[in-house]
Specification:
Elements lengths: L8 E4 L5 H10 L4 E4 L3 H20 L5 H10 E4 L2 H7 L2 E4 L5 H14 L5 E4 L6 H4 L9 E5 L9 E6 L5 H13 L3 E4 L9 H17 L5 H10 L1 H4 L5 H7 L7 H11 L6 H11 L11 H19 L6
Parallel strand pairs: 1-2, 1-4, 2-3, 4-5, 5-6, 7-8
Antiparallel strand pairs: 6-7
Helix pairs in contact: 1-2, 1-3, 2-3, 12-13
This protein binds nicotinamide-adenine-dinucleotide.
């Protein structure tokens, strides 16, 4: 199914993620039906939609008319069959429990017309388990939003073992149409890509706290005022480029790696060590390195002026 064939959306689960995911679709013009276990829960979800829309208008992200339009394009139901009958693209965002997600996928598979694409917003489960018994293997996928999903741009997009290239392309196109940034994850693995990166940091922060290396407050402040401050401009790969580490001699790289991890170098660490030994950045043209640094520093200075007030400590 092409992007143009998607006319209506469905979201199963109206909790922390579901109501925000529904907003994305509705804000971008898709009539969206949101489903949950009871009308009471759905009323609460709609209250969250209302308050998110108020904030969007107050912050001048959208106009009052756009907010009203978004609100009016979202309807609710407790009947899964109604979602199946309505939507060409359905996002499952229910509780993180494999059995429940499997049940929803299987029911939707039965109820939906053949063209409907069904995706999961799971944080940690894999699609080959969630969709194990689904017949439309080519039309299932994963869109993993980050909370708050109606604000954070990046969305991981992954395939199950049978997801077709065309379904995958349609999902990515849909994310782009909704002004999201699709992050293509090439392998199926629990936690996919970004939760694993984020989780590695959290795990280490927790361990350092438990070992008494720093207080929780100092860890939080340290992350936010150092690499957290840089993050909107550079992730780990971009940082390797802009910090000039790619210019280091190979033996200095391996010293850096062992300093940062207590584990012996495994196959992957060996691979990255070899990549670093090539002495070339990931993205930056070495000829234009100084210009890239200037651009970075200008952005940091602007952010420093706008955001970071040491007196807030
Ligand atoms: N909260 C996050 O930061 C976050 C981020 C990314 C992904 N996720 C994933 O999104 C999914 C939802 O998480 P959440 O934080 O929104 O949870 P939540 O508990 O806030 O919301 C889940 C909603 O699903 C409803 N629900 C449960 N079973 C249902 C069923 N059978 N049919 C219809 N509705 C059902 C619940 O009533 C609830 O309203 C999970 O898979 C989670 O791992 C969460």
């Amino acid at each position: 199914m092409d992007l143009a064939d998607i006319k209506k959306a469905g979201v199963i689960g109206g909790g922390t993620m579901g109501f925000g995911i529904a907003i994305n679709f509705a804000l971008n013009g898709y009539p969206t039906v949101m489903s949950d276990l009871s009308d009471e829960i759905l009323n609460q979800s709609m209250n969250h939609v209302e308050s998110a829309m108020r904030l969007f208008v107050e912050e001048e992200l959208i106009t009052r008319e756009q907010a009203d339009g978004t609100r009016n394009r979202i309807t609710t139901t407790t009947d899964l069959a109604e979602v199946a009958a309505h939507a060409d693209f359905i996002t499952e965002a229910i509780v993180e429990r494999l059995k429940d997600k499997q049940e929803i996928f299987n029911k939707l598979d039965e109820l939906c017309p053949p063209h409907t694409i069904i995706v999961s917003n799971t944080s940690g489960l894999v699609l080959s388990d969630i969709g194990a018994d689904v017949k439309r293997q080519d039309k299932i996928g994963l869109t993993h939003y980050f909370t708050p999903p109606h604000i954070v741009p990046g969305v991981e997009v992954a395939k199950g073992p049978g997801t077709s290239d065309s379904t995958y392309a349609t999902i990515c196109d849909l994310m782009k149409k909704m002004k999201k940034v699709p992050i293509r994850v090439l392998k199926e693995l629990p936690g996919y890509l970004l939760n694993r990166i984020q989780g590695a940091m959290t795990q280490e922060a927790n361990r350092l706290w438990a070992e008494g290396v720093a207080t929780a407050e100092e860890i939080e402040l340290g992350v936010k005022s150092t690499f957290g401050f840089r993050m909107p401009h550079e992730g780990p790969m971009g940082h390797y480029d802009l910090s000039g580490v790619w210019k280091w001699p190979a033996d200095a790289h391996s010293a850096l790696q062992t300093r940062q991890t207590t584990e012996p170098l495994d196959e992957a660490a060996q691979k990255i060590t070899e990549r670093m030994a090539e002495g070339r950045p990931w993205f930056v043209d070495p000829e234009k390195f100084d210009r890239a640094i200037q651009k970075r520093d200008r952005e940091y200075i602007r952010r420093l002026k706008a955001l970071y007030n040491p007196e807030d400590r």
